[in-house]
Design brief:
InterPro entries: NDUB7. Its main location: mitochondrion. Belongs to the complex I NDUFB7 subunit family. It is a peripheral membrane protein. The chain has 3 helices and no strands. The protein is mainly α and 102 residues long. It starts with 13 loop residues before the first helix and ends in a 14-residue tail after the last helix.
Length: 102
């Protein structure tokens, strides 16, 4: 299952998430990484220095999703600004400046 507007696919099924008792707000494209992280946390009694690799992998996935949403929103704002600028004869100022590499 793939959500519209996202490059990541849902790997964990609804049944797996219900079985693992993943809270509804956390059932996103990174839930397949949260399930083993929570199991590791329970086994290791939530010690902060345990399960570091699982936590890092999960947090990286969440970060990538947030960045993807931010870029999509910026594109939408740029399109809206171009439409408004075309009507008024102005040019939009980008939220994130373009670098020499882009």
């Amino acid at each position: 299952m793939e959500l519209p507007g996202s490059s990541k696919k849902m790997i964990a099924t609804q049944e797996e998430m219900v079985e693992a008792k993943v809270p509804i707000p956390y059932r996103d494209q990174c839930a397949h990484l949260l399930i083993p992280l929570n199991k590791c946390r329970q086994v290791e009694f939530y010690l902060p220095w345990k399960c570091e690799s699982e936590r890092h992998t999960y947090e990286k996935c969440e970060y990538e999703l947030v960045m993807e949403r931010m870029l999509q929103m910026q594109k939408i704002r740029e399109q809206e600004a171009k439409m408004k600028g075309a009507q008024k004869g102005q040019f939009p100022i980008p939220l994130i400046p373009k670098t020499a590499d882009a």
